[in-house]
Each structure stands twice: as structure tokens, then as C-alpha cells.
Amino acid sequence: MMKELVRSAVAAGCRASGLLARREAQLRSGLTILCYHRVLPAVEKAAYFIPDLVVTPEAFEAHCAVLARRFHLLPLREAFDAWSRRTKTDKPIAVITFDDGYRDNALLAVPVLAKHGLRATFFVVADLAGIEAPPWYDQAGRAVQVLRSQGRGVAPDGTILDAPGPSASPREVVAAAKKRAPRDRAALTARLVAAVGDALAFSENDRIMTWDQLRTVHRQGHEIGSHSASHEILPLLDDEALRAEVCGSKRTLEEGLDAAVDTFCYPNGDYDARTLRLAGEAGYQCAVTTHRGSNKEHGAAPYELKRWFIHEGRLAGPGGAASPSQLRLELTGLADKAFARETSRAVTS
User: Fold this and answer.
1) Is the CB of residue 345 less than 8 Å from the CB of residue 293?
2) For the segment 96-131, what is each residue's pLDDT rounded down to a tens digit?
3) How far apart, in Å, are the Cα atoms of 341 and each of 34, 157, 306?
4) Of the candidates 262, 166, 176, 165, which has an alpha carbon nearest to the alpha carbon of residue 223?
5) CA 225, CA 100: separation in Å to the nearest integer?
6) What are 58-80's pLDDT values in tens digits?
């Protein structure tokens, strides 16, 4: 509660002094990009193994109301083009992005966007589109949750322990598994899933969008971008596998949508010089990272665009509801300065 009170007081002070409005005016020369992942009801959010990646529909609606008033919202490709051409707008240009492409984006986020007349960009893991099994990281994370609830533990390397002991968290197990070779990681996930059997349950929201959903979202004016083919950590791949993830995912999505796919998002926020080169060779116009901040230099580093990771709890007032002033404080960078936050990387998926 004390943190919420302090954040609320800082936001109120910046708003009353006019500092918040002045900083927003400065954003008109930049490109502001927001990073969301999932939109879930409060009960499902609380049950998710990384709740920081989730906002509730109520919070998302409150955010959209603020964004519609304070920013000129466009999908990423359109926003990047307008920003690069130095197009004059009455309000700062901003982009709402979603990573992974979960079905909850289509079922819960898109209706909210429509209500406020907003369009967004959805970065999709191409090879998971239409697959009924949830992404491996959700299967592994949920399995660790179940094992822990049953009084069993899991070591950081995914080894199942007979007793609770020094058990790793679901987030820690998944983070370590991301660095494994694909075959080893698949075997680890299968072991964890088999260990919990029928106790592992998922909802419709936990799958990646179907092709019909993706095409519908695209027809409604939203942008579909690539989040790679299978969500591998790209710098760990050899050249052939890296090309399949960056270039192959673009072809898969373009064939499925019968439309151009012009933007890319690095899984886990990880990339290297090879990845940057391939993004350009593949024909993507720009790509986003997990580095925090607004983009200020027109046209600079088009494949290393910064974003603001949206954490619902940080943007809530003392009563728990979304705070318009705190969202504005976040997107101007004033929150990072006021609370001396680490600004290099955000929570990722």
C-alpha cells in the first residue's frame, strides 16, 4: 500500500505542476511503443505463472481510454512510417503491441480496442498459430505450479524432486529451459507434463490464435507481425535455424494471411548482429526489442525499437484500479526517473 501511495502522490504532483503535460508534449517528436502480452480475467491472471505479463480487461480498458485521449494510436508499420517521415500530428504517435498472439488477445483485447477506435499490432509465434496445445513455456510453467501444489519440488534444471526442498519457481524453470537445445527442452517439458497428468488444465485463452482469428483481426485493421517461428532464443541458433525463425516465420504468416508482414519482435528480447541483418534481408521494415524507453531519433536503429513494458500493478492507484496519471507518468519516462528504476530490460516472453 505504501508504494501505491507514493506512486500516486508523485503522479499527482507531476500532473498538478504541469510537468507531466510538458513531458508529453516532448513525445511528439518521438515514437512511443507499449508492450502487452495477455489480457485475462482477474482469476486467470492470478493463476498464471507469470502474472506480470497479464492485465485484466478492466485495466486494459482504462489504459485504452487514456491512450485514445492523449496519443495518436497506429499499428507499428504505419506509426514507424509516419514517425520516420516526421509527419506532424496533434498528439504523440504511439503503438499498442502484444507479444505471442494468444487467443485472449482476440477474445478480450480486440473488443476493447474496437470500443475506443484503436488499432494495434499483434506479434504471433507463427508455427503455433491454430495449434491446440499451449506454448511449451506455458505447459512447463503450469506443470511446475501443479507439482509444487502437490508438495513436490522442481530443481532449476527441471528435475522433479520427491520432496519440496529448495524448489525453483515456475519462472526460473522456464527461464533455464529457454536456453536448452530444442530437443532437450521438448523432452523436459514432456517429463513435467507427464508427471502431473490430468491435473494439467488450460483454457481457450491459453492457446495461440487460430488462423481464422488472425485473419479476422487483420481484417479489422490490426497489424500481424512475426514473433519468430517457434519462439527460440535467436542468438543461440546456428545460421540455418536462425534464418528459419526470422525469414520462415514471415513466409508462414504472409501465406496464412494473404497479406504482407512487415514487423518483427525478438523472442525474449534477445538478438545479435546476425538477427539484425536477417531482419533487414527478410524485408521487415522495423523490429521491436524489450529495451525500455521512447524512440527519439527519427529513423535510427529501425530494428532496435524500444518499448514500455506495461505492468498492471505499477500503474494502479492505492485502491487497485488503473490510474490514468500513472500510465502517463510511465510513458513519459518520469516514473523511471522518480523511482530510480533499472531501465535496460523488461519481463519478457
Assistant:
1) no
2) 999 999 999 999 999 999 999 999 999 999 999 999
3) 17, 30, 16
4) 262
5) 10
6) 999 999 999 999 999 999 999 99
Give the DSSP letter string of 176-204: HHTTS-HHHHHHHHHHHHHHHGGG----G
Residues facing 102 on adjacent strands: 208
Cell numbers given for 95: 503503438
Nearest 5°: CA angle at 79, between 245 and 62? 95
Q: What is the DSSP string of 27-64?
A: GGGSEEEEEE-EE--HHHHHHSS-GGGEE-HHHHHHHH
- 273 by Cβ neighbours in 10 Å (0-12 / 13-18 / 19+) ranks as exposed
Domains in the chain with CATH codes: 2-130+210-338 (3.20.20.370), 136-199 (no CATH)
Helix (H) or strand (E) segment spanning residue 14: helix 2-17
Q: pTM for the full model?
A: 0.95
Q: Are 248 and 229 in contact (CB under 8 A)?
A: yes
Q: Is residue 84 packed enough to be buried (19+ CB in 10 Å), middle (13-18) or exposed (0-12)?
A: middle
**Residues 6+ away with beta carbon under 8 Å from 340:** none
Q: How confident is the model at residue 269 (pLDDT cuts 50, 70, 90)?
A: very high
Rounded Cα distance, 257 and 219, in Å: 10
Strand partners, 38: 54
Q: Which residues contact 237 (CB under 8 A, 6 or more apart)?
A: 245
In eight-state DSSP terms, residue 213 is: H
